[in-house]
């Protein structure tokens, strides 16, 4: 079940029948047992994978979260309450958890979508608020260090994909545990999952710059394959976003359009559109607005953007 990545790090691919469908979870070996980084989403399939591994007799010392999206935190409460394993995140992560516990969390996202021309989006109807309803056993600090296994890793705040996203860097081996900050096969979605507007793409670009201060020979992402040419991949992601920004801007050169309209033009109006595609378009418009490339106007309660 475990795939060896380095002498002390193994990968467990946890699968589930929705959204990303699988998450890379990493187990870092130490004298007191393994540190688990991220758990995968909550599902019977995911629970079965972890239970099968635990039944082999391995010892888990603690669970650490790169960020608190459902596909990374999903089984943290189960580890804590059912298995008796402490769970660690950041105070930023805890704030996000409390937002997602709220009964109106998805309503806020839906309202934001409607303001920008929805509501065609296929939002997830599952009530997953319960997975956030627990108290972390402790917090690790931005710009500090954290023990993963027996090694000390630098904690790097990398907002954008999530406001509470963190990477972990081992300077001696040049290993980066990257979460969803850098992915090999596609660019991470930059979204506003709490239903609150912010300039998340600006934050993401800034975090891509910050990460260059930590030269890595290999990055261990939250989904997909391992990344060996880390700096090259960072450059590819940045270039991809720049091209998408140019594309989004091209659709509003002549007239004002809503995020809904532009999302359909990019991804096709005849297919089923998902919230991630809407979010990617919305955060690009907010970024373009922040650098003076577009302005927003409101017509009949719907926000639209037009090039300046």
TrEMBL record:
Domain of life: Bacteria
Transmembrane segments: none
Domain Metallo-beta-lactamase: 22-223
Keyword Transcription: no
Pfam families hit by this protein: Lactamase_B
UniProtKB keywords: Hydrolase
InterPro entries: Metallo-B-lactamas (IPR001279), RibonucZ/Hydroxyglut_hydro (IPR036866), Sec-metab_biosynth-thioest (IPR050662)
GO molecular function annotation: hydrolase activity
CDD domains the record matches: TTHA1429-like_MBL-fold (cd07725)
Record protein name field: MBL fold metallo-hydrolase
Organism in which the protein naturally occurs: Salinibacillus xinjiangensis
Lineage, uppermost ranks: Bacteria, Bacillati, Bacillota, Bacilli, Bacillales
């Amino acid at each position: 079940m475990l795939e060896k990545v380095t002498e002390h790090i193994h990968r467990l691919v946890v699968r589930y029948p929705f959204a990303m469908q699988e998450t890379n979870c990493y187990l870092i070996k130490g004298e007191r047992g393994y540190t688990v980084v991220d758990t995968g989403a909550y599902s019977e399939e995911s629970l079965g994978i972890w239970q099968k591994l635990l039944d082999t007799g391995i010892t888990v010392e603690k669970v650490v979260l790169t960020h608190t999206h459902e596909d990374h935190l999903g089984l943290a409460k189960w580890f804590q309450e059912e298995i008796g394993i402490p769970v660690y995140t950041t105070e930023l992560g805890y704030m996000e958890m409390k937002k997602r516990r709220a009964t109106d969390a998805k309503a806020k996202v839906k309202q934001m979508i409607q303001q920008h021309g929805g509501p065609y989006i296929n939002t997830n109807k599952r009530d997953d608020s319960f997975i956030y309803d627990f108290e972390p056993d402790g917090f690790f600090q931005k710009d500090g260090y954290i023990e993963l296994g027996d090694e000390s890793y630098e904690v790097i705040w990398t907002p954008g994909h999530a406001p509470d996203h963190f990477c972990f860097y081992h300077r001696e081996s040049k290993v980066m545990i990257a979460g969803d900050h850098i992915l090999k096969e596609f660019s991470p979605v930059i979204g506003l999952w709490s239903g609150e507007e912010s300039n998340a793409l600006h934050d993401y670009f800034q975090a891509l710059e910050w990460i260059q201060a930590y030269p890595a020979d290999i990055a261990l992402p939250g989904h997909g394959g391992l990344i060996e040419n880390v700096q090259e991949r960072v450059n590819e992601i940045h270039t991809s976003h720049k091209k998408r920004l140019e594309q989004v801007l091209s659709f509003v050169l002549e007239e004002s359009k809503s995020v809904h309209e532009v999302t359909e033009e990019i991804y096709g109006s005849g297919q089923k559109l998902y919230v991630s595609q809407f979010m990617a378009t919305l955060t690009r418009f907010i970024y373009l607005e922040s650098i003076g490339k577009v302005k927003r106007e409101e017509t009949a309660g719907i926000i639209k953007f037009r090039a300046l």
